[in-house]
Amino acid sequence: MLLIIEEYFKNFPARKKVAELLVTLGISVKDSKLYLGDVDIPINAVAEAAGVNRKIVYHTIDYIEKTYELRSIFERIKPHMSLVDVAPIMGWEVLEITFKKGKFGCALEKIFRIISERSCEIRQIIGERELVDHSRISIIFEKPINMEVVGEIRDIEGVDSLTLHTSEMDKKKIVCSFCKVKYCPRKVSFK
What we know:
- The chain is α+β, with helices and mostly antiparallel strands.
- It has helices at residues 2-8, 13-25, 43-50, 54-66, 68-74, 87-90, 104-117, 147-154, and strands at 28-30, 33-36, 39-41, 93-99, 122-128, 135-141, 159-165, 181-183, 187-190.
- A hairpin with a 3-residue loop joins β8 (181-183) and β9 (187-190).
- The protein is elongated.
């Protein structure tokens, strides 16, 4: 997706910012309007969020609608719901995993095997495979995850870092001399 935006907007840096924002937020372009699901999004709001003027947003919409390849993509974009920020409030845990460049697929298969073998109850999985930056995945667990599972995942080749968001206060037990651990009531980070 980013390669398509890069190619079509390479000569229009301001429009590129708008297009990237639309993709990131899941905003679609239909009939010269912007939509988040079925909700009409004001041009002003998108311009402000992208740091451009309204005219740039209008030009971006026009360019998308006049370019068949872009129109085919942008009219189908949908927002996705992420439970990452509300999970600790609900008593769930979130394990965020970032991967070293080019290691996403191999490591992902091993992670799912570990989770499956331990019968961890998953509520949601959200992942992004980045070509330029670190790829990442967030796994929301309905019940507290066993620290042995976290340790096994940490040892997988290609895993760059782990961050565990938890509502539990008793995660201090995982602090060890091997890992650099940041602790707060909601977040533990292994880097």
